[in-house]
Amino acid sequence: MKSIKYLTIIFLGVLLTSCGSNTGQKKSDFTIVTNAKKGNLPNNKTLELSIENKKKYTIDSITYLLNGMKIGSQTLLSDFKLGKQTLEAVVYFEGEQQKVTSTITILHNELPKVYTYNIIDEYPHDITSYTQGLEFYNDTLYESTGQYKESKLRKVNYKTGEVIKNMNLADEYFGEGLTILNDKVYQLTWQKGTGFIYDVHSFNKLDSFKYGNSKEGWGLCNHNDIIYKSDGTEKIWLLNKDTLAEEDYIQVYTNKGKIVGINEMEWIDGKIYANRYQKDGVAIINPENGAVVGVVDFSPLKKLIKQHAGLDVLNGIAYNPKTKTIFVTGKRWNKLFEVEIIEK
Fold first, then answer.
1. pLDDT value at residue 311
2. How does pLDDT run across 198-224, given as a tens digit for each residue?
3. C-alpha distances in angstroms, 249 versus 20, 83, 212, 223?
4. Which structural domain, as residue segments, surrounds residue 46?
5. Distances from the Cα of 110 to the Cα of 220, 234, 243, 294, angstroms
6. Strands 271-276 and 59-66
7. DSSP code of 37?
8. Sheet strand arrangement including 131-137
9. Do 83 and 181 share a domain, yes or no?
């Protein structure tokens, strides 16, 4: 997704990672035992927990928690989010208590469905635009583009490709995804840890906001007053629409493992459709638990656009509620495609 890559290597002291221990604290006498194979368990299975008690203490009781939620020694995982989760056990024994922690990775229990598409129509698209975000609002297309000294926010007549309104970002910013909620445009930048809020009509800047734990800005979409933000990892963050604080997140997983590079996103019929960086396809994600329930292969589209030196990957997906159709394009593509998704 980026034209610049950084390698950061940080070594700060010694990190102690024994179960149930923190630096300077006694190592736990207990270990959590699970039925997870290599630490992984599908979400249609029951998590089975027990305690290894090598010193043969007399245990009075055990409290188990999964991400802070109290669970039993046998717990069906279907209602839990996917991804790496924290297990904790509080062991009460002989008038004492000890905490011990471990992790488990919850996988989806089904293969993603495979979808293809039919092209409904084609429209002109600015071949110089390094498309990062794409969204319809009141039947008008809005686009955010990237690259330093080239980043823009635009309002576009999608049928003709005419730029109705354009605003250039300052040269120091690399534009990323956008979403529009309650007449406000939210636009991300890549590595500055800053996003901007504009009036949708005038493009006047109303405010800016800082990222939290997500560090980078990649893609945005919204639904029911929740803003969803990707950061290039497997995580999709849930932002408070008023404070833009990162209040929660989901992790994007299949039945095999995590899916990283989550990029531009769009909310469509209860699911998040997400571009993946350097992949000419789209993942269909369950926003409740992070499961990839489908994939759409758009790679043939690249043969239908002008071939040139600056041509880059598929990126940009938008749903038009008026036409009830999906629109896709790419970085420096000369066409915008209106498509319908069909199961293969």
1. 87
2. 999 999 999 999 999 998 999 999 999
3. 25, 11, 12, 15
4. 30-107
5. 26, 18, 36, 10
6. unpaired
7. B
8. 131-137, 140-145, 152-156, 163-168
9. no
